[in-house]
Write a structure and sequence with these properties.
Blueprint lengths: L1 H11 L2 H17 L4 H13 L1 H7 L2 H15 L7 H20 L3 H19 L4 H13 L8 H15 L13
Helix pairs in contact: 1-2, 1-3, 2-3, 3-5, 3-6, 5-6, 6-7, 6-8, 7-8, 8-9
Amino acid sequence: DAERAIERAYLRASETSLAAAVQPLDAALAADPKNPALLYTRAFAYFAAIPPLRIKKNNDAMLAQFEKAIALLERVKGQPWEAEAAALHGSILGEIIGLKGGMSGMTLGPKSGKLLDRAAKALPDNPRVLLFRGTSLFSTPALFGGDADAGMKLLQQSADIFAPAKDAAAPGPNW
Protein backbone atom coordinates (compact mmCIF):
# COMPACT_ATOMS: atom_id res chain seq x y z
CA ASP A 1 0.00 0.00 0.00
CA ALA A 2 2.81 2.42 0.84
CA GLU A 3 4.43 1.86 -2.55
CA ARG A 4 1.23 2.68 -4.42
CA ALA A 5 0.54 5.72 -2.24
CA ILE A 6 4.09 7.00 -2.77
CA GLU A 7 3.80 6.41 -6.50
CA ARG A 8 0.50 8.35 -6.65
CA ALA A 9 1.98 11.20 -4.61
CA TYR A 10 4.99 11.28 -6.94
CA LEU A 11 2.86 11.40 -10.06
CA ARG A 12 0.66 14.11 -8.57
CA ALA A 13 3.58 16.05 -7.06
CA SER A 14 1.65 16.05 -3.78
CA GLU A 15 3.68 16.81 -0.67
CA THR A 16 0.77 16.11 1.68
CA SER A 17 -0.03 12.73 0.10
CA LEU A 18 3.62 11.77 0.27
CA ALA A 19 3.90 12.77 3.94
CA ALA A 20 0.90 10.55 4.75
CA ALA A 21 2.25 7.66 2.67
CA VAL A 22 5.62 7.52 4.42
CA GLN A 23 4.31 7.44 7.99
CA PRO A 24 3.58 3.70 8.08
CA LEU A 25 6.72 3.06 6.04
CA ASP A 26 8.89 4.91 8.54
CA ALA A 27 7.33 2.90 11.38
CA ALA A 28 8.01 -0.37 9.56
CA LEU A 29 11.57 0.70 8.79
CA ALA A 30 12.17 1.59 12.44
CA ALA A 31 11.14 -1.95 13.38
CA ASP A 32 13.15 -3.61 10.59
CA PRO A 33 15.99 -1.22 9.61
CA LYS A 34 17.84 -3.67 7.34
CA ASN A 35 14.85 -4.75 5.26
CA PRO A 36 15.91 -4.11 1.63
CA ALA A 37 12.35 -3.59 0.38
CA LEU A 38 11.66 -1.00 3.07
CA LEU A 39 14.99 0.76 2.51
CA TYR A 40 14.41 0.93 -1.24
CA THR A 41 10.83 2.09 -0.87
CA ARG A 42 11.78 4.81 1.61
CA ALA A 43 14.59 5.95 -0.69
CA PHE A 44 12.08 6.08 -3.53
CA ALA A 45 9.86 8.24 -1.30
CA TYR A 46 12.72 10.74 -0.95
CA PHE A 47 13.02 10.68 -4.75
CA ALA A 48 9.25 11.14 -5.00
CA ALA A 49 9.53 14.36 -2.98
CA ILE A 50 11.35 16.04 -5.87
CA PRO A 51 8.52 17.16 -8.23
CA PRO A 52 6.98 19.73 -5.85
CA LEU A 53 10.45 21.01 -4.98
CA ARG A 54 11.30 21.27 -8.67
CA ILE A 55 8.15 23.35 -9.21
CA LYS A 56 9.29 25.63 -6.38
CA LYS A 57 12.84 25.69 -7.84
CA ASN A 58 14.22 24.74 -4.45
CA ASN A 59 17.54 23.18 -5.48
CA ASP A 60 18.90 22.96 -1.93
CA ALA A 61 15.89 20.97 -0.76
CA MET A 62 16.11 18.70 -3.82
CA LEU A 63 19.77 17.99 -3.12
CA ALA A 64 18.93 17.20 0.52
CA GLN A 65 16.23 14.72 -0.55
CA PHE A 66 18.61 13.09 -3.02
CA GLU A 67 21.29 12.73 -0.33
CA LYS A 68 18.80 11.09 2.03
CA ALA A 69 17.77 8.67 -0.72
CA ILE A 70 21.38 7.81 -1.54
CA ALA A 71 22.18 7.11 2.12
CA LEU A 72 19.41 4.50 2.19
CA LEU A 73 20.13 3.05 -1.25
CA GLU A 74 23.72 2.34 -0.25
CA ARG A 75 22.41 0.10 2.55
CA VAL A 76 20.19 -2.07 0.31
CA LYS A 77 21.44 -5.65 0.01
CA GLY A 78 19.92 -8.63 -1.79
CA GLN A 79 18.16 -8.99 -5.12
CA PRO A 80 16.00 -7.68 -6.69
CA TRP A 81 16.28 -4.70 -4.40
CA GLU A 82 20.04 -4.25 -4.67
CA ALA A 83 19.96 -3.90 -8.47
CA GLU A 84 16.98 -1.58 -8.33
CA ALA A 85 18.73 0.48 -5.65
CA ALA A 86 21.81 0.77 -7.87
CA ALA A 87 19.64 1.89 -10.80
CA LEU A 88 17.77 4.47 -8.74
CA HIS A 89 21.06 5.67 -7.22
CA GLY A 90 22.54 6.07 -10.71
CA SER A 91 19.48 8.00 -11.83
CA ILE A 92 19.66 10.27 -8.79
CA LEU A 93 23.30 11.05 -9.55
CA GLY A 94 22.19 12.13 -13.03
CA GLU A 95 19.62 14.43 -11.44
CA ILE A 96 22.30 15.88 -9.16
CA ILE A 97 24.50 16.56 -12.19
CA GLY A 98 21.60 18.46 -13.73
CA LEU A 99 21.17 20.51 -10.56
CA LYS A 100 24.82 21.25 -9.87
CA GLY A 101 26.07 21.47 -13.44
CA GLY A 102 29.65 22.44 -14.06
CA MET A 103 32.26 19.91 -13.16
CA SER A 104 29.91 17.64 -11.20
CA GLY A 105 29.37 15.55 -14.32
CA MET A 106 33.06 14.70 -14.43
CA THR A 107 32.90 12.82 -11.14
CA LEU A 108 29.25 11.84 -10.80
CA GLY A 109 28.70 10.81 -14.44
CA PRO A 110 31.07 7.83 -14.37
CA LYS A 111 29.76 6.75 -10.97
CA SER A 112 26.19 6.93 -12.29
CA GLY A 113 27.16 4.86 -15.32
CA LYS A 114 28.80 2.19 -13.17
CA LEU A 115 25.74 1.91 -10.94
CA LEU A 116 23.39 1.63 -13.92
CA ASP A 117 25.66 -0.95 -15.58
CA ARG A 118 25.82 -2.98 -12.38
CA ALA A 119 22.03 -2.95 -12.13
CA ALA A 120 21.67 -4.01 -15.77
CA LYS A 121 24.09 -6.91 -15.32
CA ALA A 122 22.24 -8.15 -12.25
CA LEU A 123 18.68 -7.74 -13.60
CA PRO A 124 18.75 -6.99 -17.36
CA ASP A 125 15.00 -7.40 -17.83
CA ASN A 126 13.82 -5.55 -14.74
CA PRO A 127 11.46 -2.78 -15.89
CA ARG A 128 12.64 -0.26 -13.31
CA VAL A 129 16.29 -0.88 -14.19
CA LEU A 130 15.40 -0.46 -17.88
CA LEU A 131 13.48 2.72 -17.06
CA PHE A 132 16.34 4.34 -15.18
CA ARG A 133 18.94 3.27 -17.76
CA GLY A 134 16.74 4.51 -20.61
CA THR A 135 16.13 7.83 -18.92
CA SER A 136 19.84 8.25 -18.32
CA LEU A 137 20.83 7.46 -21.91
CA PHE A 138 18.07 9.68 -23.27
CA SER A 139 18.91 12.70 -21.14
CA THR A 140 22.70 12.49 -21.12
CA PRO A 141 24.40 14.54 -23.85
CA ALA A 142 26.01 12.39 -26.56
CA LEU A 143 29.37 13.99 -25.76
CA PHE A 144 29.18 12.29 -22.35
CA GLY A 145 27.93 8.89 -23.53
CA GLY A 146 24.25 9.57 -23.98
CA ASP A 147 22.25 8.05 -26.83
CA ALA A 148 18.65 9.19 -27.29
CA ASP A 149 17.77 6.31 -29.64
CA ALA A 150 19.19 3.64 -27.34
CA GLY A 151 17.47 5.34 -24.40
CA MET A 152 14.12 5.28 -26.18
CA LYS A 153 14.54 1.55 -26.89
CA LEU A 154 15.15 0.85 -23.21
CA LEU A 155 12.19 3.01 -22.22
CA GLN A 156 9.98 1.08 -24.65
CA GLN A 157 11.25 -2.24 -23.25
CA SER A 158 10.41 -1.00 -19.77
CA ALA A 159 6.91 0.04 -20.83
CA ASP A 160 6.35 -3.31 -22.57
CA ILE A 161 7.30 -5.21 -19.41
CA PHE A 162 5.26 -2.96 -17.12
CA ALA A 163 2.10 -3.09 -19.27
CA PRO A 164 0.96 -6.67 -18.58
CA ALA A 165 2.07 -6.47 -14.95
CA LYS A 166 0.33 -3.21 -14.10
CA ASP A 167 -2.18 -4.91 -11.82
CA ALA A 168 0.27 -7.46 -10.47
CA ALA A 169 1.27 -7.53 -6.85
CA ALA A 170 4.96 -7.37 -7.75
CA PRO A 171 7.03 -5.44 -5.24
CA GLY A 172 8.33 -1.99 -6.05
CA PRO A 173 6.83 0.98 -7.84
CA ASN A 174 4.89 -0.26 -10.87
CA TRP A 175 4.94 2.59 -13.31
